[in-house]
Amino acid sequence: MSRPRLTIGTFGEISVQRTPGGKLEARARYRDWDGKTRLVQATGDSLKSADRALRSKLADRTLFQSSTSILAPDNPFGDSVTYWLEHLDLEDRLSRTTRLLYERNMRTLVTPAFGNLTLREIGVARCDHFLKPLAKQSYNRAKQARVVLRLALGLAVRHEVLLRNPMDHVSRLHRPPHVPDALTPTEVNAIRLPIAYWEAGRSPSGPRPDGQLGAIVEVMLGTSARIGEVLAIRRRDIDITGAPPSIRIAGTIVSHRGEPTARQDHPKTAK
Fold first, then answer.
1. pLDDT tens digits along 13-46
2. CATH code of domain 77-169
């Protein structure tokens, strides 16, 4: 009669034998997540130490192992970052600006703190300890770091490299109280005056005026649009016959490294 099959994540009877070098070697069969049963071994100077070493080794074998040969729980965190960025490129759902922003935040904010760790060593307490001091320095940087770290570890969970995402259990980030600054009429006029002076050709320094700066500032004041959105306005986005006249904000200006500045359709236009 054949031996009963082990349940995934369990091991069979432990046997001990002496090696040619004089140490004791403990062995046991372990059934991994892929369904294959493998022999796991550990040595020690005594029967108890060999048994403890083997049981510790068996306990470290996670039930969830990578469904691919690319990534595993013992891989450095940097490998998972590369894997995550490649996955973003394959999905091709993000705008180029957002993709580059994610990579920059991961490289500059997260990797310096986690670069010397393996995926298995990243837990809730470590993530929490990383975000809290960062949030004291800058809420926005902590928020950006939290987003990319959560996404990268989430991919590892979906691909069965990690059992859970530690970012699901870190404490919430609390935005510090902030009162928006609004320009007073005096401050607005203080901006308009030097622009008018420069556009009139009276200023000896700076580039030659082309008559656009004053119009750009007035549109920003009248619409609260960002500078990139204002520069992306096309003739067909303007309706001066309506009551009141209106401007449709439907794009922005982007500048990627090594590429010419170009207009990009606003990613939220369709929504």
1. 999 999 888 899 999 999 887 778 889 999 999 9
2. 1.10.150.130
Please name the residues in contact with 8: beta carbons below 8 A apart, sequence gap of 6 or more: 31, 32, 33, 35, 63
For the chain, what are the domain ranges?
Answer: 15-60, 77-169, 185-265
Tell me if 41 sits within 8 A of 25, measured CB to CB: yes
Tell me if the pTM is above 0.85. Answer: no
Crossing angle for the helix pair 185-199 and 213-223, nearest 10 degrees? 160
pLDDT tens digits, 125-175: 999 999 999 999 999 999 999 999 999 999 999 988 888 999 999 999 998
